Amino acid sequence: MNSDDLAPLDEFPLHATVYRLVRSNIESGRLPPGTPLTEYGLAQELSLSRVPVGRALQRLAEEGLLVRD
How many Å is the maximal CA-CA distance in the chain? Predict the structure, then answer.
């Protein structure tokens, strides 16, 4: 994941920052269709708890940008 173009964490709630990071990676093609993305794995990669990651992934799923099992 590349977070260079995102605002600092203190400007947004954590789940919103995760949402923007993942959405940016989806839209840029860094996360191509079919890439497995788990709440647990992403939380570990970003050194976060699963709660903000789960909220971000849920929002992305609601927008049709990913499918959750």
Answer: 31
Q: How far is 38 from 11, CA to CA, in rounded Å? A: 25
- 8-34: pLDDT as tens digits: 556 779 999 999 999 999 999 999 999
State both tokens at 4.
């260079």
Residue 49: φ, ψ to 5°: -80, 165
Q: Which pLDDT tens digit goes with each residue over 31-68?
A: 999 999 999 999 999 999 999 999 999 999 999 999 98
**Cβ pair 18, 46 in contact under 8 A:** yes
d(CA 69, CA 59): 14
pTM as predicted: 0.81
Alpha helices in 6-49 (DSSP H): 14-28, 39-46
